[in-house]
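Notes to self after the call with IL:
- keep both proteins in one doc
- input above output, always
- annotate only the second one for now

Protein 1:
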Amino acid sequence: MGKIVTADLQASTFARLEQLNAIGAALSSERDISTLLEKILLAAKDITHADGGTLYLVTENEQALRFEILRNDTLGVALGGTSGNPIGFPNLPYTDEHGAPNNSMVAVYAATHVETVNIEDAYTAQGFDFSGTRLYDENTGYRSRSFLTVPMRNHENVVIGVLQLINALEPASGKVVPFSAADQRLVESLSSQAAIALTNRQLILQLEGLFESFINLINLAIDEKSPYTRGHCERVPILTMMLAEAAHTTTTGPLAGFRMNEADRYELKIAGLLHDCGKITTPVHVVDKATKLHTLYDRIDALDVRFELLKRDAEIELLRSQLAQRDPQLAVAAASPTAPEPQSAAEAEAIETAYAARLAQIEADREFLHRANIGSEAMSPADQQRVRDIASRYRWQNGSAETRDFLDPDEIENLSIRAGTLTAAEREIINHHIVATIRMLEQLPWPRHLRRVPEFAGGHHERMDGKGYPKGLKREEMSIQARIMAIADIFEALTAKDRPYKPGKTLSESLHILGKFRENGHIDPDLFDIFIRQRVYRDYANQYLHPEQIDTVDESRIPGYRV
C-alpha cells in the first residue's frame, strides 16, 4: 500500500513539475504585460489548487505595492489584467504614517524582507494585521483561511512584485487546507521564473521606448530646423498604419492575402517614423525655400529696391525735362552733361506720356515677378521668356555706381522655375535626403524583427513604373509596406497646410491628384483602391485635416478608381 502511495505521489510531483516547465515556456513567449501577469497568477492558482489570489507589483518609486490582478473563484471576482475591471484598492505602502516599516501587512513584509510567508489560518495568525481581510469576509460572506505569500525576485535578486494565494483546496473534497511545503517550493520556483519573464518583458518595452525616443529626437531635430515640415514625420507613419490595417482586413482583390502580426506592425511603424531621417542632412534654406528667390531671405525685396531705383531715375529724367522747359539756363546749370535740350510743349507732353508708360511698365513687371516668385502655379514658356525680357530691359547702378543687368543669372534661373520653388540643383539636394536615409538606416545592426526597416523607409519615393528614386525600383521589386508608405507620404504632403510653397489642398483635390498618380504609374493601383474603398482618406481627414479642407467627395469622379 505504501508503495502505491509513493508511486502516486511521485507521479503527481512529476506532473506538477511538467506543468511548471510548460508554464515557464508560456510565460517567456508572452508579449503583453497584462496577459503575462494574469498567466502568472492563474498558473500559481492552478498548480496549488488555490481558490483565489492577488498579484502585486512594486511601484515605480519602490515604496509601495500596487494591486495588479485579483481573482477569486468562489466569489466570481476578476479584477485587473484582461478582465477590463479596474482594481480600486489603494497601494500598500512600505512604511506607515510615522515612517516605520509596515510589517503588519503580510504582502509588504514578504516584499521588504524577501521572505515567503505561509499561513495556515489568517484568523489565528500572529504578527500580521488581517483586519482588512476579516472586513472583506464580513461583507462577502467568504472565509479567508490559508495564505501563501511569495516575493517575486528577478535575475538580479531584486523584488519586483508579490504573489499571494488564498485558500488551498483539497482536489478530492474541495476542503480548504494549508498550502503544503511542496506547494510553497513550486510557487517560489514559479515566482522566480515569472519575475524573470516579467523583467525581460519590461526591459524589452523600456528599450523599445528608449529606441523610439531616439527616433523622436531625430524627428524633433528635423522639425526644429524647419517649422514648415513640422508634423510630417508624425503624420506619415499614422497614415501608413491606417492604410496597412485597411489592407490587412481586406478579403477581396489581389491583396486579400496580405496579413500582419504585431511584430510586422511594429516594424512598419518604426520605418514610418524614420522614413525622412535623412532630412537632418538637408540644408535648412533649401527645405524652407518658400519662394523662388528665397535663400537666407527672400530676394524679391532686393528686386523691389531696384524697381524703385528705376522709378526714381525715370522721375529724375522727367523733372530735368520739365526744368529745361521752364528755365533753360537753370536747367543747364543743374543738369548733368547729358541733360536734354529744352523741348517744346508738345515734346514735354510726349515725355510725360512716355514717363507714365514707363512707370506702368515697371510696375507691371514688378507685379509679374512677385507672382512668379510664389511658385504656386506652373509657369508657361511665355512667362519664362518674359523673365528673360525683364532681365535685359532694365539696367541699374549698385552702391558702387557699377551698372548691372537688372537680374543676374541665378535670379533668372530661379524665377524661371516651371513649377514649385526649387531649381534642378536644389531638387537634387532635397531628393538626396532619401539616399541619406537609406545610408543611415543600413548602418544600424537591426534585430531580426526590424531588418526590413531600411527597405520600407527607403522606398517611399519609388514609383510603380520604375521612374522614381533613388533606385528606380518597379512595383514587383518593392514590398507592399514600401508601396503603402509611398501613398501615405504623397497624400500627407498634398493635404498638409504647413508647407511654405503651397496651401493644403481639399480632400477632393488631393484625391483627384492621387488618382492621376495612379493612372500614370506613380502609386500602387490595388492599394489606391483600398485607400478609397475603405475610406482611409476620410478617417485620416477627420483627425488631421482642417474642417475647411474636408469637402464632399464624389468617388465616381476620382481618376483611376474602379468603383
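Protein 2 (the one to annotate):
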Amino acid sequence: MFRSRKSTQPQADKPPATPQTAYEKTLARAFRLLAAKPRGVARLRERLLEKADEPIVEQVIARLLELGYLNDEQFAASFARSRLTFKPIGKTRLRQDLKRQQLDNTTVQQALENAYEEQSEESLLDRTIEKRLRLKGAPASREESKKLFDYLLRRGFAYDLVARKVRAVSRKPDFDEEPAE
C-alpha cells in the first residue's frame, strides 16, 4: 500500500561515503535543521547523531560554533522572549521549558533574568488573568476561583502571587453593568 522511502534494491553503483562527504552531508543537515527551527547545541547534537557518527557530529558542531550559528545563550534568550510574547507563563514554567531544551543551569538562569527584566512576572500574570476573565468571566463561586487558581499555577506563576491576584479578582464586584438611571 505505502512505499517506503528507502529503496529495497541494493545499490552497487553507489560508491561508499568518504569521511569528507559524510562531514559535508552532516553539515548540510545541520543547516537544514537550524533553518527549520532554532536549537541549542545539545538538541542539535541529538538530531545529528541519528544519522551520523559521533566524531563527524562533533566536527560539525565545532564548525557551527566557530561560525556563530550555534550559541546556547542567544538561543535561550530568544526562546524565553518568544515564550513570554506568545503565551505568557511564569518563571517556574519557563525554567522547565528551558531545561527541557537541555540547556545548562547558568544559561537558564541568565535567560530567566533577562526575560523577566523586560516584563515582570506580575504584569504577565495580570495579562493572563485578564484574558481568562474575558473568556470565562469573573469567578462567581469558590469552585471557579479554584479553577482559575489551578490554571495559573499550571502556567508556572508563583503561588503567593497567584493567591493574592485570585483573591482580589474573586472579591471584585462586576463593574461591567451600567447602573440604571
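Annotation: The two ends are 73 Å apart (CA to CA). The CA atoms of residues 23 and 59 lie 8 Å apart.
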